[in-house]
DNA sequence: CACACGTGGCC
DNA sequence: TGGCCAAGTGT
């Protein structure tokens, strides 16, 4: 027998109230703090976020402090978390809140959604947690829970699947009593994060297992379906450390570069083999190999070698000497 | 729509 | 150990 939306929602909420992890951002409904946590949690694990969240809130306790801080300091507190555009957009949004809303965090979905870095998911999450508004927050966890609950084999990479699941999630939250709105999104997410996990779901501890169609069919391990990702392309590259009086030879990538526009980089060359000629063209002679690194992004995996380099003659036009103290590692 | 964007954990 | 993934957004 299928379980009603309201009934499964009740079971889920009761489970959540007994089993929710005690996370720092759950101790507040301050929209600023909720917002910072949601941005940090995008594509990032809870355990990784916690120390960053604590340090960030200690240094920037409210919208105004964040808005007026030097960008370098914001990035410094973010260093190591990844997706650095999030940090820049967070501050841009703080400035937007100061300018358009007098420094008071906006309390309506549309204004929240207009903040840079805040998409559909994040706007719904903030609106629900901080303001008790009924917007279904659809993230990877919720899609997994729903796909399994309905034994839904559609590709969750497809926009139309997400749109349909968004509507289902909305019907679910709309079926709940007003008092439960603030917790409901989080309850589904928490279930996905701790019970209805991507691998080896713990169905025995799941409050929804009785009504879960995937479990009935034995499909819980193979849902949700995601179409195959593009094959990873492996690339070799080499970079040269060219040092002169404590400064490094670097160039800033043009703003119209497709990959990493505006980023500073060391003299480098990417190919299927190390090509000393590419460095020679810059007047750089390669010396001893002093290190190696790996870096993967989307479907490219770089394997890099680091060489000591010497510049013969003048620096190439595009390059500048950058003092080591200006590098944030 | 496909792709860029980081990092660490897991098997 | 390398491939895959994890609380998305912007272009």
Please give the CATH class of the largest domain.
Mainly Alpha
Largest sheet: 7 strands, mixed
CATH architecture of the largest domain: Orthogonal Bundle
Number of individual domains? 2
How many distinct helices? Answer: 13
What is the element string, with H for helices and E for strands?
HHHHHHHHHHHHEEEEHEEE
E-strand count: 7
Shape: globular
CATH superfamily of the largest domain: Hypothetical protein, domain 2
Classify the beta-strand content into a percent band.
15-25%
CATH topology of the largest domain: Endonuclease III, domain 1
Considering DSSP H and I runs of 4 or more, what fraction of the residues is helical? 40-55%
What is the end-to-end distance?
57 Å
- What is Rg? 24 Å
Characterization of this structure:
By secondary structure, the protein is of the alpha+beta class. It folds into two domains: 218 residues, Endonuclease III, domain 1, CATH 1.10.340.30; 94 residues, Nucleoside Triphosphate Pyrophosphohydrolase (Alpha-Beta Complex). 42% of the residues lie in helices and 17% in strands. It has 13 helices and seven strands. Strands 1, 2, 3, 4, 5, 6 and 7 form a seven-stranded mixed beta sheet that branches. Strand 1 and strand 2 form a beta hairpin. Helix 8 packs across helix 11 and helix 9 crosses helix 10. The radius of gyration is 24 Å and the shape is globular. It binds a DNA duplex (11 and 11 nucleotides) through helix 2, helix 3, helix 6, helix 8 and helix 9.
